[in-house]
What does this fold into?
Amino acid sequence: MARRKIGIWIIGAKGGVAATVTVGLVALKKGLAPNHGLVTQLPQFAGLDLASFGDFTIGGHEIREVSLYDEVVQLVRVSKAIDAELVAKCKPDLDKIDKNIKPGTLWNVGNKIEQLATDDLRKLKAKETPRAAIDRVQADIQEFQTKNKLDQVVVVNLSSTEPPVDEATVPAKWKDLAKTLDKKTCPLAASSLYAIAALELGIPFVNFTPSLGSAPAAIQELAIERDTCHMGHDGKTGETLMKSVLAPMFAARNLPVMSWVGHNIFGNLDGKVLDDPENKKTKVRSKDRLLHQILGYSPQTLVSIEYIESLGDWKTAWDHIHFQGFLGLPMVLTFQWQGADSLLAAPLVIDLVRLTERAHRNGDRGLLTFLASFFKSPIGVPNHNFVEQFQMLQSWAEKVEAKK
Amino acid sequence: MARRKIGIWIIGAKGGVAATVTVGLVALKKGLAPNHGLVTQLPQFAGLDLASFGDFTIGGHEIREVSLYDEVVQLVRVSKAIDAELVAKCKPDLDKIDKNIKPGTLWNVGNKIEQLATDDLRKLKAKETPRAAIDRVQADIQEFQTKNKLDQVVVVNLSSTEPPVDEATVPAKWKDLAKTLDKKTCPLAASSLYAIAALELGIPFVNFTPSLGSAPAAIQELAIERDTCHMGHDGKTGETLMKSVLAPMFAARNLPVMSWVGHNIFGNLDGKVLDDPENKKTKVRSKDRLLHQILGYSPQTLVSIEYIESLGDWKTAWDHIHFQGFLGLPMVLTFQWQGADSLLAAPLVIDLVRLTERAHRNGDRGLLTFLASFFKSPIGVPNHNFVEQFQMLQSWAEKVEAKK
Amino acid sequence: MARRKIGIWIIGAKGGVAATVTVGLVALKKGLAPNHGLVTQLPQFAGLDLASFGDFTIGGHEIREVSLYDEVVQLVRVSKAIDAELVAKCKPDLDKIDKNIKPGTLWNVGNKIEQLATDDLRKLKAKETPRAAIDRVQADIQEFQTKNKLDQVVVVNLSSTEPPVDEATVPAKWKDLAKTLDKKTCPLAASSLYAIAALELGIPFVNFTPSLGSAPAAIQELAIERDTCHMGHDGKTGETLMKSVLAPMFAARNLPVMSWVGHNIFGNLDGKVLDDPENKKTKVRSKDRLLHQILGYSPQTLVSIEYIESLGDWKTAWDHIHFQGFLGLPMVLTFQWQGADSLLAAPLVIDLVRLTERAHRNGDRGLLTFLASFFKSPIGVPNHNFVEQFQMLQSWAEKVEAKK
Amino acid sequence: MARRKIGIWIIGAKGGVAATVTVGLVALKKGLAPNHGLVTQLPQFAGLDLASFGDFTIGGHEIREVSLYDEVVQLVRVSKAIDAELVAKCKPDLDKIDKNIKPGTLWNVGNKIEQLATDDLRKLKAKETPRAAIDRVQADIQEFQTKNKLDQVVVVNLSSTEPPVDEATVPAKWKDLAKTLDKKTCPLAASSLYAIAALELGIPFVNFTPSLGSAPAAIQELAIERDTCHMGHDGKTGETLMKSVLAPMFAARNLPVMSWVGHNIFGNLDGKVLDDPENKKTKVRSKDRLLHQILGYSPQTLVSIEYIESLGDWKTAWDHIHFQGFLGLPMVLTFQWQGADSLLAAPLVIDLVRLTERAHRNGDRGLLTFLASFFKSPIGVPNHNFVEQFQMLQSWAEKVEAKK
Ligand SMILES: NC(=O)c1ccc[n+]([C@@H]2O[C@H](COP(=O)([O-])OP(=O)(O)OC[C@H]3O[C@@H](n4cnc5c(N)ncnc54)[C@H](O)[C@@H]3O)[C@@H](O)[C@H]2O)c1
Ligand SMILES: NC(=O)c1ccc[n+]([C@@H]2O[C@H](COP(=O)([O-])OP(=O)(O)OC[C@H]3O[C@@H](n4cnc5c(N)ncnc54)[C@H](O)[C@@H]3O)[C@@H](O)[C@H]2O)c1
Ligand SMILES: NC(=O)c1ccc[n+]([C@@H]2O[C@H](COP(=O)([O-])OP(=O)(O)OC[C@H]3O[C@@H](n4cnc5c(N)ncnc54)[C@H](O)[C@@H]3O)[C@@H](O)[C@H]2O)c1
Ligand SMILES: NC(=O)c1ccc[n+]([C@@H]2O[C@H](COP(=O)([O-])OP(=O)(O)OC[C@H]3O[C@@H](n4cnc5c(N)ncnc54)[C@H](O)[C@@H]3O)[C@@H](O)[C@H]2O)c1
Ligand code: NA
Ligand code: NA
It folds into this structure.
């Protein structure tokens, strides 16, 4: 059988994670980089017939004027996280991909993000209704698909974290929500417009950010109606991954956690956006949710996220866990996590695209809950125990393989 | 139904862990302490009909002359790990238990441990054959059972870590091993003699130490023959517990671990014994085994255990994990674990006794592999993933409960 | 010569530090505790003829209703920082000292602190002018001195950190400031009223808190006028001490610090008060000041102070220092400081009282700048290099000794 | 005045530190790198009239066959510590310097180091007397000086750490030591032969390694006799620097240190050599010496140095300091130091050469004790307090400047 051609349409296509996904896929195609960090390269997923690195074409939406290459060079120079020689070899490909990237929408993204955007987009925002923005987004995606002769497109949201949307104001039924799209009072933010754009077209949607995206019930309804699938939200890459691995230990050992303090510092663009109290709120909520679920009670928690410029992409997290042992004795575990954020995220994004495409091909519809292990706040999955979430992924793979 | 009376016969009955088990059980009986750290107090084990704290009577073997109370006071004064007021309230009970503790055996325990023992025991060692020592140990246990009208006894080894025994020199069949017991050349060390003593009597045996104990095939055969059960070895309380929780994360995320360095410092008697290179060897092996199994490859590892007197019971571990992310980028996780070793171990010992007694009552024979999550080197269980080991425990509990 | 009797008059006399000073002095008098943490017990100060532990009598002002003993028991039970047996032996003395403690003033202390106070004091505050409050405070101190036949009194401020006072609103001359004391619009807060009360009487004043105290030029003028001495502010006990020791190393090695992040967590009453953004501002400013002075430039800094109840008196600080090495290479130093805050502070308070009394006896007047090493923000001393500050103390001691 | 031309003759000229010194000086000359890490670039030394980066010519001795460029590429690729682009620009200069590097001597360097050497050198070692080796070394240095028309040469030892030499076997007088140089039983190791070679020629010698070098009394006598100067030993770059900064704090605050544990891990060639127990002994002694001097008593200490290949040049140190506070309460400070070893060392080597050349020009003879702050074990200086050592450097600079 001829290989199927798969398009990855990235929202926030010139951000740190997106640029790393892009340079990474180019490097993997060319055989210039190892498979590290890619879950889908583990032996237990070898029989799944997943799309190969060579099958992918990349495009997307952005709001800033910058070249992919310049974005990547930042990761080389400031963060020393990607090899200069590797990037030099990928430059021509990056320049070509640049041309697939179109202006996105700023609907309800808040001040901090608007300030990043081009003047044109800010003006457009004042004029365009949400519906018009969706139409434009859809036209871009369809043009990308046609021009590149793609068998399938997957849309992934890698754009900046939006301020929280009050979910109570979002109508629960698709037909009611659809009506708001023509109005200036539409409560949704851009991430949800992108989700609607994709799902209406029957295209799978993955939300790697803590923004609302496809989470509202009405949009979940739309996905089912259009016979497609989606999942979110907020990629689980560092401190929260550690929480979902350590908290089950404290639970299983009946060691009550009295307090769990987590301080995160980093200096990339994501960090700058999250430095705004409004945008930070969305993220902190997502990082703080799981402890209660895993432990069955609520220790005092503190999550801080601070922009420290010199760190660049190097997210450093320090967590202090104060727990009680036998006879009530207080004990302490601390950890220090030093990882380059975009390089932790990028392989998971590639994994999610490969698995989502495979699930869609398999006929999975609605929420892809088996992807829970990839997310800080997996929609529809109350279990935050990482190993148990990973078992869900393995079981799904076994079932899909058995069907072949 | 009248409550069954259960005896806990502890080898190393005046050591740090033993003393904590003892004062802890007294405190729990009197309602003076919370349940923290006891796995068997989790809701999922509530329906198992486990023995209650009030059902236990404690006795055991020792080689040093010291009172339980004095041993506990060390944990109060030096380590500030147990409350002075609590201990004061338990003193009369501790003094009574002291009388149940008999002289043990020093067979092949090596120099370091022999130096701790009384002169009498050292002299006895020169005269007694292994068989004679076993007979004496059995008589002590049986007297304990009769005098205290116990329905069941469980033997737990909490004695000092012995130097390694060359397993190749231990006959594989019980009938061949039994013959060596009359000879001065018997290759076994004390921990295995205690195991044989218990199992021959049909009494369950739990080995909380890294010493060989009941691990040899010939002794496993004996357990089956005498229709009883056993498990080991080396309680998983700190750094290794962390490894069995963190390594599966690196495996599941395909993040190759390049090196894993673990430094352990502490200052109790256990630390003093492990400071001897011979005895340390046994422990390091036990702490180092699991990474290969979980990861499927062998990163460079280093495990150090050092005696730092001022720390007392406070085991402080610092681990440095160097791993490779996407595009081969090196990243670092470090953790610092500060826990009082005896208070981490003691509740697990109580758990193991309760679960072993229950398993025996249930008819389980041979190795109790469902107890794997409690051990650094669970005999007969290749899986070191903590969460999956814990699932084995939960499944067992469900089956036992279903049978009721 | 007969021993001189010295009174220590503590503002905030039942707070954590005050209670530790008190129980500590009682224990030292009785020979129940070692000298650890007392700078004045170092050999280089042995020839200074400082007051002995037995020479001190304690009294002070408070705003809460609580007994010294109950306050100390918190440090025993919650924080496991002081020995239960020690406290039992000191109880009678604590109960006696309780009687020397009088109601203080709430002038401009802000909401957070007012909430701690008794109803009576809150009512009094509404009625009393600053001048009246000062008069009352002076009467209390004089009664204490007379009743206890004290040769000298030293006043130390150990009360809760006040919200910042706008220093621009404080008149620069004492005669102008004195006039505001009769008005409701007086800009000073309680710490400065206490300072005025002491200095007007010619009594030395030490400000261990970051509150303004005697720092305003007008109050410094008063001290000189009344022929007495004073110093402040903010005791240097933990993270900032570390900064004043580490930053000089980065400076001397020409290793540019790019960012210095400090996170502090603790759970005592001080932590609760500092949890209020207004009060926290005063503290953060004091902790953040010195880096610029030592380094000669301003790296990005972040200081957080968070109330984590379970930690009690155990202040845990995590600092992350990101610096540039040769050829611009970024490197990292992190440290973790785990100390009981009140036990770090208390010996310094005793040192300050002994040294201040000695300086006063020696004829030193105005600011006691040689005490700089004890303070986060030493008034009048631009040098924050700890070792150089300590040399100032040693030089002073040599000079005083030479004069004898 | 015309610039003076200065030669740096490096023993171990292709090692990690040497390669970094070399590439660094080339980069500094070309204006491609910032001054970070160079103490001599601080404002307080601006008036000293030190040699400029452009004044230096590099040569030296080696025992391995490798090119400087290849050595530097390791620091680029494995350790990601030096910029690839920077190195590319310096390659021609490195290739030229390669030609100035001559075969050294293996006298008494022990097995581990011999294994690194070329066959030729191993054979030569069997034949040559120490005296013959010294003569050869001197001829190489003189040829270097003549050929490059150098006004002054400074010899710096940057070669691998030798196993300890029993100092008791080294004659105390130069005339007695000189006699042993003709014998196979000469107790000195190579580092001392190099020292003798330099000093006999009146050339200053700096020993950056913990090897004995010029430390013996007889060699110190030689330096004076030949009217030249020298200093050592063991550059203070990481964990020990931290100790010399932190220990004075514990001393000044009268906080008794109970134990100080330091674990060092790294993976460069130096680490491989130090992995040999013999060579490690020399280093550990040097790292462990200072605490007693600073504190005035000897806490329990532990220093480990372990070779962890994946870390490359990144020396990671974890130190655990257990100290006693007021009323005897135990408290803990831990730190984690992550620095690239060669990049920490290289600027100090350049500083030492500049300062030694200046001191020689100034007429300083014998031990240059004012350089103490640069060394873990400064010969002839009992004071290990870093800030006070740095004051010695500043005072010297003031005096030299005043003389100008
Ligand atoms: N480890 C990780 O990096 C990680 C983990 C979990 C989640 N995330 C989330 O992934 C997202 C991307 O992270 P990043 O580090 O790449 O951030 P980034 O700031 O580097 O990139 C975000 C990009 O989105 C663009 N953008 C913003 N609003 C847009 C809009 N409305 N339409 C189109 N483009 C828009 C921005 O211009 C920017 O280029 C963030 O929301 C982040 O919180 C990242
Ligand atoms: N967290 C933990 O404390 C932990 C975890 C896993 C395993 N372990 C193991 O548990 C054991 C006990 O630890 P501990 O801290 O109580 O040590 P410990 O040294 O305080 O106690 C051991 C006791 O065993 C006694 N003993 C030694 N040889 C004996 C013999 N042949 N017969 C009878 N008694 C003997 C000693 O006299 C001592 O009282 C050690 O082997 C240790 O390695 C402990
Ligand atoms: N390591 C340290 O503990 C440390 C270091 C530097 C500075 N300080 C400062 O020392 C002070 C005391 O610290 P603490 O831990 O004892 O705090 P604390 O909250 O335990 O004690 C403060 C006491 O002051 C009393 N108080 C408040 N306002 C008062 C007023 N106007 N008059 C009289 N009493 C008043 C409170 O009731 C309380 O009893 C704080 O300002 C703190 O920031 C402490
Ligand atoms: N931060 C630091 O890197 C640091 C700090 C203090 C001291 N030091 C010391 O500096 C020295 C150099 O460190 P490095 O990291 O460059 O080590 P390295 O192993 O990379 O370099 C040492 C070089 O010396 C050469 N050599 C060995 N014996 C020799 C001999 N007899 N004659 C000539 N050359 C010889 C080796 O071949 C090697 O090239 C070591 O002794 C080290 O302990 C280094
Ligand atoms: Na123990
Ligand atoms: Na306090």
